[in-house]
Amino acid sequence: MPFSQDEIRWDLACGIGLDGHWHGWFDVRVDAAALRRLGLHPDQPTAHVNSPSPPRWWHAATERNAP
């Protein structure tokens, strides 16, 4: 994993929603310095999309052909 234990935190909250069913929510937080190290911090140009997304069939084919 690219993050050490002190660079990432996740929490789970559960409760009954407006529809009466149970729901769960994950909250994932990563330290800003760890994101910068990977080029993923929002202040870095590499964190922004700079080309169009692959076509939808590409995603399906990738998942289908995964080992």
Label this structure with key terms.
67 residues, alpha+beta, 22% helix, extended
Strand and helix map with partners:
Blueprint: E1 8-16, E2 22-30, H1 32-37, H2 56-64
Antiparallel strand pairs: 1-2
What's a quick, concise take on this entry?
The chain is an alpha+beta fold and 67 residues long.
The total count of strands amounts to 2
What oligomerization state is this entry in? Answer: single chain
Helical coverage, percent range: 10-25%
- The shape is extended
Q: Beta-strand percentage?
A: 25-35%
Helix and strand string, N-terminal first? EEHH
Strand line-up of the largest beta sheet: 1-2
Question: Kindly state the mean pLDDT as a whole number?
Answer: 88
Stretches with pLDDT under 50, minimum 5 residues: none
Structural commentary:
- There is one protein chain.
- The protein is of the alpha+beta class and 67 residues long.
- The protein has helices spanning 32-37, 56-64, and strands spanning 8-16, 22-30.
- It has a two-stranded antiparallel ribbon.
- The longest helix is centred in the last third of the chain and has 9 residues, at 56-64.
- The mean pLDDT is 88.
